[in-house]
Amino acid sequence: MKTSAPKRGFVNTLWEEMGILWQHVRDMGGARSRTHEARPLLTAAGFQEELAILGLSGRKFVPKDYADALADYLDISINIHVIPDTWHPELSRRLAISGRLGELRYSEQLTLAAILVPGSLPPLVSTLTILHELGHLAAGDVLVEPSGEAGGSDHQHAEGASFATSSIRKGKKLARGFPFAEEVLREREANLRASYALFAGCLGDDSPYAYAMYSVL
User: Which of 1, 57, 128, 149 is most buried as measured by Cβ atoms within 10 A of its Cβ?
Assistant: First the structure.
């Protein structure tokens, strides 16, 4: 009888430790399931491959052309709204507070995406903002599974470095690789896509990366 109590205490402690260990294993498994193999940032040549899929490589185009081709490929509707500040001044205030120039709204159920841009932006800035938000759709960033983790540090990364990617919900994307796990990297790549699209659309078949006679389909 004197040894029964210590045994019960030992068994209870063992079960508690096993429970903690199991939770740790589950957390590690969950962390692995939210990430995929690392990849580098998109290059200009890689972007031209995406344009080839859309039928735009080697052609001059504007943001509306890119949006229409992307919408057809993703099988969704993409609407671009340049809203005068006098109509909705709260939009400009909200974007200014958040440090953003535009806003992307996406509904999986309605297969609908809407890009909202204040009318007060200069033309070039407005164009790049629209292309930036379209870049998020192309990358599949709207399909990223929320993990509750920090967005990552806003620091410069070495050129050619590879970064962890995230799992996504079921859905279609244009990019070959998965979206980055860090939000700051997703934003950086959206900026790259915007600049690539701007120059590719202006240069057409004069672009050194144009796949005018090549299709990846």
Answer: 57
Instruction: Check whether residue 21 and residue 54 sit in a common domain.
Output: no
Q: Are residues 3 and 92 in the same domain?
A: no
Mean pLDDT over the full length of the chain: 80
Domain that residue 19 falls in = 1-33
Tokens 């970064």 -> residue: 163
Q: What CA–CA distance (Å, rounded) separates 128 from 95?
A: 16
Provide DSSP, 146-184.
P------------TT-EEEEE-B-S---SSSSPPBSSHH
Record the tokens describing residue 154, joined without a space. Answer: 């806003």
User: In terms of Cα–Cα distance, which of 114, 116, 136 is closest to 126?
Assistant: 116
Q: How far is CA 169 from CA 55, 173, 178, 195, in A?
A: 26, 11, 11, 27
Domain count, the chain: 2
Q: In 3-state terms, what secondary structure has residue 115?
A: strand
Residues 16, 110 within the same domain: no
In a domain, 58, yes or no: yes
Which spans in the chain are helix H?
A: 4-33, 44-54, 63-74, 89-98, 123-139, 183-203
pTM of the full structure: 0.76
Do 42 and 24 belong to one domain?
no
